[in-house]
Design goal:
The structure is a homotrimer.
Chain A lengths: L12 E2 H8 L12 E2 L1 E2 L9 E4 L6 H5 L5 E4 L12 E4 L3 H12 L8 E2 L4 E2 L4 E2 L4 E2 L4 E2 L4 E2 L4 E2 L4 E2 L4 E2 L4 E2 L4 E2 L2 E3 L4 E2 L4 E2 L6 E2 L6 E2 L6 E3 L4 E2 L4 E2 L7 E3 L4 E2 L4 E2 L4 E2 L4 E2 L4 E2 L4 E2 L4 E2 L4 E2 L4 E2 L4 E2 L4 E2 L8 E3 L4 E2 H29 L1
Parallel strand pairs in A: 3-4, 4-5, 5-6, 7-10, 8-11, 9-12, 10-13, 11-14, 12-15, 13-16, 14-17, 15-18, 16-19, 17-20, 18-23, 19-24, 20-25, 23-26, 24-27, 25-28, 26-29, 27-30, 28-31, 29-32, 30-33, 31-34, 32-35, 33-36, 34-37, 36-38
Antiparallel strand pairs in A: 1-2, 21-22, 38-39
């Protein structure tokens, strides 16, 4: 159960309410007025909680769960123990996420500008905006309705932020147009100079970075991630793309819609990702590449060539996933053999 | 010698005082009232300084040191030149660290809340707390005695911080319970949302992150490191664990006591490290893994399977260290041979 | 064209002015009074814009550009289409950078200390300094003429910053001496404790970090990069070196002049880079290494041995670039063959 200190509960909800919130099919003959006080994982949920099951990896935990109700796919309904009500969903995790959000709605400060925030007189703020203490909003910035700006965040001059977005503590944004319902987590850096220099024997000469960062709706940017603005064109993040902590996105990168980019990955300048690309953690992409729609890169891949749509790659230099897995298996055996050979040779020398 | 501008000195100390501070055995017939004004490395310490020797790598520097005294292990005492007093310790580096701390105690502002800090009226602060300008402390936060919060740090609602901890400039903490004597370096991000989504063809649906970050006593978290809070359970960092800069720790990770995690390493969600694990820099760990007590990963290892207690691994995918070193040696020779073959072939073509 | 919302224009300039700003040779018989309103890339510049051409990769775009003038090397002047005036430069990109800076000078707040900044009474500020809201400047800090400190940045006690430097939003600096014309991008962390512990079975004992960070003139440090101060000696960054986002530089590292260090690279403690070293993105360097002048490491190299001057390396463990490329080519073929073998074997089993 969530710690009430940090996550106050909005429940209880009846089974009928729960079915509506999470789009669930209730079994026949269940008591639709039965009340549930919260949610929990399979192994620790109590009879007054709702849990969910989606991965077979947790089949054992499902068999012994004490949860009073369990969201499952129709094909798994029969696995739910008799002590738990099987609530059917085509997408159990999505249903559970919706229910979790209903039980624990985001705790939001009352609208208003903290007197210790610094908002330029020429900035335009929509209704319902929250600006917490220490936040600084520059000249002519446009902050949409219900935007929430956390303490000590810095919004530069002329930046636009769409409705219902949330900007984390100590984050900074400049030279950027940001969509609606975007979440920028604490410490993210958006819109600073790209890394562009005319290299030379003497001083490297800085190339003015004259583009912007343009972020679509429903994007999430992780803590301490960095997104540089473009040099001449813009750096673009498509709607619905989610970016994890400490990711680096270089200038002029263009990312499509619905991409998933896991922590500590870096994308070099002018590379383009089409829609639905998924990059594991600590992946690196060279500059000026094109990664096709739906392509996937395993964690720690280093990509130096274009990747075709839907292709899965791994390794450095990245190759087709299937190829790399075979190669890695060969390396594993080879490493063992070489090491044993050495051990034997060393024994022989004794 | 430390720059007095940044590191004022608390000395001088007599040899007798030094022996007590650093738990040293003095040689017979030395002048216990002789005064030393500071510390220094072997190659630049002066006669009024104390130095130390532990690694044979520096044997040459020891032979020519001008330091007036040198902390050494008993087995190395005879190596100390006649111009330097050999001060014996079972752990020379630890002794030296204690002496360094005595000569240069941390320069701490006077207790009190800067009038330009923002502390919620419902927050509870212990005695001796320092809150510097621009720091923001949320509702109901509990700040232990002698905690030091640096400028522009942000402590969220309900966060608890144990006595004598120090929170760096521009760091942010939310949804977290933090032990005593913990050091969070500048810009670290603790307690923000984990990276959890129910992926889909349309929008990826955010899964509410309802866990906390729980940090034990005597932990250090590096600059701009990120530790996400748990999804349902907590993210846990055991007592005495030290974490370097730009490290990423995903949601629900559980780290034991006394671990060492070097810079830019990333640990994926739900992975568990037992006590005393050591991870080199730029290591990556997959999710849901178990790393046994005392295991070690060389820098840049990519770990995708469980690691047994005390095992040492290297490479990607990680294999036993010994195996990888042999394999790498084979690669080195192979790369050279292939390149020479090509060079020869190219010459033949001419 | 740059978005005038973020990048107001200082033009128009005549061809004569442009030739002076960017050190260009004008063709005979051109109208030196013709006015240009801005700059743009080859493919989108209009007749009233100046563009540039340097890489043959863009030869096609040059042939069809609508730009009214194009900066080119003398050897490429004949490639410029007749609708565009060929402006000759020995270094077209540098010339273009200078012109871009003239058309779009950095938009700088008026000098002065924002009343919501916090400047210690003992700090000394030069003429023309800008301190924006929420910035905190510690005791005895020395801020040179025309330095610009952005919102919520934190400058620690006794730090010195040279003239015309700029410190980004939410950055923090302590225990550091910083040169002139240095740019620290938002969220960078400079001068915090290095990662030094006397490791032990019980608690790891922190080793006081008593060195400084010393940064030369004309250095750039990227967003959320981290540079730790030295343990006993200093961490040193030579003049003109440029460092990208999320780079980690450990204690006692010494970097020469004019180095280029791309994003997410990490340099372990006490390693030394001589002048003009270039490190690609996500490179890792072990500790106590020496990297010779002009050496280059390809992206994702992991360097565990010294590198000779002018040597180019790649891979992990890093080997000569040429060797690694051959080896990688072999791996690519091997992975394909192994995978096909398996596919064939699987078909045979059916």
């Amino acid at each position: 159960m969530a710690d009430a200190r940090f996550f106050p509960s909005a429940g209880p909800f009846t089974l009928l309410q729960i079915a509506e919130i999470a789009r669930l099919r209730l079994p026949a003959n269940c008591d639709v007025q039965r009340r549930f006080t919260g949610i929990g994982p399979l192994d620790s949920a109590a009879p007054e909680h709702v849990t969910f099951f989606e991965s077979r990896r947790y089949a054992k935990a499902l068999a012994t769960t004490r949860a009073g109700a369990c969201i499952v796919a129709p094909r798994d309904a029969a696995r739910v123990p008799a002590t738990s009500i099987a609530l059917q969903s085509e997408a159990p995790q999505r249903s559970f996420a919706a229910l979790a959000a209903a039980f624990h709605p985001e705790r939001r400060p009352a609208p208003g500008i903290d007197p210790r925030a610094v908002v330029d007189a020429s900035a335009r703020l929509g209704t319902g905006v929250v600006v917490e203490a220490g936040a600084v909003i520059g000249a002519r910035a446009e902050i949409g309705a219900d935007v929430w700006i956390e303490p000590n965040a810095v919004i530069g001059a002329d930046v636009a932020i769409g409705a219902q977005s949330r900007i984390g503590a100590n984050a900074s944004i400049s030279h950027a147009l940001i969509g609606a319902r975007v979440r920028i987590l604490p410490g993210a850096r958006i819109g600073q100079d790209g890394f562009g220099f005319a290299l030379g024997k003497g001083l490297h000469q800085k190339i003015p970075q004259l583009g912007r960062v343009v972020i679509g709706d429903d994007v999430e940017v992780g803590a301490n991630a960095t997104i540089d603005r473009g040099a001449m064109d813009d750096t673009v993040i498509g709607a619905g793309t989610v970016i994890d902590n400490l990711v680096q996105i270089g200038h002029n990168v263009r990312i499509g819609r619905g991409c998933v980019i896991v922590a500590q990955t870096g994308i070099s300048g002018s590379t383009r990702l089409d829609d639905g690309v998924m990059l594991g953690g600590q992946v690196g992409l060279g500059g000026h590449l094109r990664i096709g729609a739906g392509a996937q890169a395993a964690p720690r891949s280093g990509i130096i060539r274009d990747v075709a749509p839907s292709e899965a790659v791994m390794g450095y230099p990245a190759m087709p996933l299937r190829h790399f897995l075979r190669l890695a298996e060969k390396w594993r055996r080879e490493g063992r053999r070489l090491s044993q050979g050495t051990a034997r040779a060393e024994r022989d020398e004794d």
